[in-house]
């Protein structure tokens, strides 16, 4: 089952995010999940299996000026629990994201993935994402002070 995250999902999301990135700064707050639960442009989705949260993705609808009122979407922090990968929950999560994007008439869905996550890249390509049509760039907060 795919649904919006709720405040009581904070611990499970923290566990998933720790599989995604190794960072002492990862901090999932129930108050933030409460906020996101009611935000019309941000959808923090979770995939549940047998009552446990085993997958997540953050979907953001972005206003654009290029195509009238047609937005585009950004997907961040896509993760499926290591022990549940290959069971189809990732496909369900992507399908739910695509349905929400079609409902908003999005012009495109964009996502970034760390260069070392080659299994994830293969999954995204099987889901129809193109890894060779654009090039992504990232500047992290820790790098902001270095350039000013």
Automatic annotation (TrEMBL):
Glycoprotein in keyword set: no
Record-annotated N-acetyltransferase domain positions: 1-148
SUPFAM superfamilies: Acyl-CoA N-acyltransferases (Nat)
Keyword Nucleotide-binding part of the UniProt annotation: no
InterPro entries: Acyl_CoA_acyltransferase, Bact_Acetyltransf, GNAT_dom
Alphabetized UniProt keyword annotations: Acyltransferase, Transferase
PANTHER family: AMINOALKYLPHOSPHONATE N-ACETYLTRANSFERASE-RELATED-RELATED
Record protein name field: N-acetyltransferase domain-containing protein
Organism this protein belongs to: Pseudomonas asuensis
